Amino acid sequence: MRKIYLTVVFLCILSVLTGCAGKTRETASKEGFYFDTVIQLSVPEDHEELLDGAFAICEELEETFSRTLEGSELYQINHRTGPEVTLSDDMRTVIETGLQFYRLTDGALDITIAPVLELWDFKSDDPQVPDADELAEAVKKVDAGSLSLEGNVLRFEREDTQIDLGALAKGFAADKLKEYFEENGVDSALINLGGNVMAVGSKPDGTPWKIGIQDPHKERGEVAQVIEVTDRSVVSSGTYERSFEKDGVLYHHLLDPATGYPKEVEAAQVTIISDSSLLGDALSTSCLLIGEEAGTELASEFDNVEIQYEE
């Protein structure tokens, strides 16, 4: 169920501000490593000073949503000493979205998947299939229905519940960065969080941004299609990038909360175009997990959302 952090789906930016190379005379760009992936932010040169502030926001959000960073807010939630915790506003927003999509997907997207995720290491040089008994024990701990949220207070019915927000955090970060740029007078920028791309406005010449969508059946960088967007988010989720093969069986990162094993899915990739990247994050993972018919119906419940499946 976890969204791929290491550029799960390669969203190729065909045009950054004025050219295809991604950095031109009119562009100021900065790269960094946050949310377990390489990110790139690009703004017009006259707003270059805002990039440091944007990366400070990334640092703050890393210290909020990282499950493994000791001292992060999520780490403290997972290592709580009582049945209730008071959340920051940012954490409340993301957990509220997670619980919403838990209900909308009948449990297919479950933010309490953390105990199962800890047994799978898709980033290892030699990944292994977890022990079946250990996996079965971990699955017993997965149940977002045992959580209740009232205001900023999150209540746990069980002591062994742990949360992972990998399916949602980058989307929230993209929205937060867009808000920061707009509040500081930027009307043209590109936010690339490795699988989540947010276009602020249009290109400086008034034309739409061109975002290339990775072909899930070909090598990284080979584009299946080009999407033109203005002031929109593009998020893709797929099974093909964070995965490994063992004894002729392909294991991918989209885990079934009911079994702990990779979910059998119909499509190789789902792309969501929306105004909110948090919504795009939640929908892209959810719609891949629940299948094309149910996913298309789910996406239709939200305004101004486009969905594309790639078999």
Automatic annotation (TrEMBL):
Named cofactor requirement(s): Mg(2+); Mn(2+)
PANTHER family according to UniProt: FAD:PROTEIN FMN TRANSFERASE (PTHR30040:SF2), THIAMINE BIOSYNTHESIS LIPOPROTEIN APBE (PTHR30040)
Pfam families assigned to the protein according to its UniProt record, in alphabetical order: ApbE
Keywords: Cell inner membrane, Cell membrane, FAD, Flavoprotein, Lipoprotein, Magnesium, Membrane, Metal-binding, Signal, Transferase
Alphabetized GO MF terms: metal ion binding; transferase activity
Organism name: Candidatus Fusicatenibacter merdavium
Family: Belongs to the ApbE family.
One Gene Ontology cellular component annotation held by this UniProt entry: plasma membrane
Binding site for Mg(2+): A167, D281, T285
Primary site of residence: membrane
Signal peptide start and end residues: 1-21
Enzyme class: transferase
PROSITE patterns: PROKAR_LIPOPROTEIN
Membrane topology, from the record: Lipid-anchor
Cofactor: how and how many bound: Magnesium. Can also use manganese.
Record function comment: Flavin transferase that catalyzes the transfer of the FMN moiety of FAD and its covalent binding to the hydroxyl group of a threonine residue in a target flavoprotein.
Localization of this protein: Cell inner membrane
EC number of the protein: 2.7.1.180
Reactions catalysed: L-threonyl-[protein] + FAD = FMN-L-threonyl-[protein] + AMP + H(+)
Protein name (Swiss-Prot/TrEMBL): FAD:protein FMN transferase
Keyword DNA damage: no
